[in-house]
Amino acid sequence: MRRYLLRRVAALLATLFFVSVLVFIVVHVLPGDPALIIIGPEGSPEAAARLRKAMGLDRPLPVQYADWVGHALRGDLGRSIQYDVPVTSLVLSRLQVTLPLTLLAGGFMVAAAVPLGVFAATRHRRLPDYVTMALSQLGVAVPGFWAGLLLILLFSVRLGWVQSGGFDGWGQGVWPAVKSLLLPAVALGFFQFAVLARTTRSAVLEVLREEYVKTARAKGVGETSVLFRHTLGNAMIPILTVAGIQLGQLMAGSIVLESVFYLPGLGRLALGAISARDLPVVQGVVLFVASMIVMINVAVDILYGVLDPRIRYE
Amino acid sequence: MTMWPRRRWLGLSVVALVLVAVGSAAALAQPRGGSLVVQVPTEPPGLDLTASPASAIAAVVFYNAQEALVKVDRHGKLVPWLAERWYTTDSKNYTFFLRRGVHFHNGREMKAADVKYVLDRAVNPETKHPYRVQYEAIQDVIVKDESTISVTLKHPDATFLWTVARQGSVIYPREAVDTLKTQPIGTGPFVVSEWVRGDRIVLVKNKDYWQKGLPHLDKVTYRFIADPNSALAALKSGDVDVSGFGLGPESVDELKKDGRFQVILGDSTNDVTLSLNNSKKPYSDKQVRLAITHAINKEEVLRGAMFGHGKILGSNVDPLNPYFVDVSKRVPYDPAKAKKLLAEAGYPTGFDAVLKVAPQYYYTVRTAEVLVNQFAKVGIRAKIEQIEWGQWLSQVWKDANYDMSIIGHAEAWDIGNFANPKYYFRWDSADFQKLFKESEVTVDDKKRRELYVKMQQMLADEAPAVWLYMHPRLVAAKKGVTGIWKDLPVPSFDLSEVAWQK
Questions:
Q1: CA nearest neighbour of A26 among A288, A277, A250, A252
Q2: Which of A54, A93, A153 is closest, CB to CB, to B197?
Q3: Could you tell me the pTM of the whole model?
Q4: What residue ranges of chain B have pLDDT lower than 70?
Q5: Nearest by CB: B411 against A42, A169, A260
Q6: Which residues on A lie below 8 Å from B197 (Cβ)?
Q7: In DSSP terms, which residues pair with A6 in a beta bridge?
Q8: Distance between CA atoms of residues B376 and B338, nearest Å
Q9: Is the dihedral of CA A214, A220, A221, A222 positive or negative?
Q10: Cα separation of B77 and B6, whole Å?
Q11: Residue B367, SS3?
Q12: CB contact under 8 A, A166 and B227
């Protein structure tokens, strides 16, 4: 187990190194010049050239990369060009929106998808199965931003139950903060719920066809026990794999919904930074999200062993 | 500009001020304080007006936190502000007399030395001031005494007072220069108290504001909501009180019908322009450019792209400019003539063109779609290419690597762009450059107006670009909010006189 963990950590570091090189190259070959964007069409190209020099963007790329990685290793991701504050503190302040939003959406997703998937599997090719699958088809088809707008129209504009967007911070109390994340979490989780419900259904269906399930039933084991003790546990591996991938996607998918609900999250930070060519922020956010996703994958791998004792880490 | 017309302006604005004061005293029984939530589409990239011309910065900071010696008021007129009066006989030597007893947010009194510091810094090439070109005429700034300052220019410049009134000329204390980006200290009616990056900026009342009785509001919260649908929903659910910029023209009718809101539609300095690359064939041919102009039905463009809101333009001067004349009829919509001109220029079967637009500005795409249709009728086969704003700036604006493009030119007094052959229109006309140069050094207002009329006519006749329409200023607010500017002669969102009416 320890050797396995060491290997995973080494792989994590290697991944981060590649991500850092990749993101650095991508943001620097991206057409568009940060100085030009700051100066804008009403300034002069000469002013932009002076600014470029002052920001150190005229140095050779390898020098700029070494400088950036050197600082990043010491926990310093640089300063935001547009905000003039450290990137690290920007990322951390945005996490208090994106992290709870992702977890909340993930919670909704699992809580709705797994029971519904199991339910549909046990009613295979009967009406409840078709209804569930139609519902999840809808989830796949409806874009998150549109679902978000519909939710705002219903719950904020018409009913006035929750605010239409924005996030006033955790300082206002836990419930008001969670309340302002409810609608975006539902809208965000809806799409992923649909995918997970389908995965759960087919995984459970597959196990239900196994010989040992037949044996259990023949021995007179109750249907509830068959379902939860014999089937679900064994169907968990594909469900967990998909859920893990989806948790990462939720984080990435929050970009659109953060715009619809004007939430100050990581996604909107990245989006704004890309259009402003705030290179240190883009680099910092991508590096951060990449490491989060890699860590989720490691956690999923470790959970495999917990769920299925046959899997050994050698 | 001579002394006489300025005095007349001053007189007029005093009369206007009295009228406004009397009028609002009657209508506005009781301006009330309280707090206001304002939606703006973009978060400012820093709060330093002297580092970036972004209008998102001006919408928060200009006139609210920081002010200049001279102010452009809600009618587009220059009025004395931090300078209570000024003096010039030749438009080359200016003396400004500062208002006494004006304090910065940090408590220190504003002195002539601060003004000198601000102007010197703007001229200095090391400071990367985005508008440095505007200040290049300054030769010398001399502090006469604590509240008198004189500025000598290298040559007469009739637009210098406008330069002093711009958002890049705000007066800040020398000791706060390094923190302008995060804490813009100034003399304005509000103080920036909190900036939650990505979410909101909170301004609170400056209790020691030099204008007694102002501002009315105690607190203003700016919320950044980019999506127009979300902005509309936020307004309707009551989460924001005023939608400052960014609502689409399609929302106007719906909001007008809703008894809870007022819609303010006014003029702006934003000229939506079809830019042509004059250094490239076939756009270097005047006949082709005129054919393109004749092919465009601007009324239809305005209806199709802006639901009819805005005003048709004929040249590069906006309706808020005192020298504005309507030249839009000089080259009218006439597709038959457009075809004829194209044939004469050697393009009887038309030509292919790429129309580069940046969807960050929604109106550019909508306008392009209408134009492509109109072009097809005369044989111009235009293809829309959507590029991201950063790419637009490097491809189109910096490198002039384009055929046609559409963008709003929001700067007031920007006709000089056409006198600059390096500007992305790449139009090099010695006659126009001469006219513009003359207008810059002409002090007499009447003569200057004549020159401006000539320039507008020449632009219309030479068609180095096609001026389509003025983008309307569009604000929606809850009923009961008063004091919002109708027109937008400067890119500010002046909240000093905004109040809740009982």
A1: A277
A2: A93
A3: 0.83
A4: 1-31, 502
A5: A42
A6: 83, 85, 90, 93, 264, 269
A7: none
A8: 12
A9: positive
A10: 10
A11: helix
A12: no
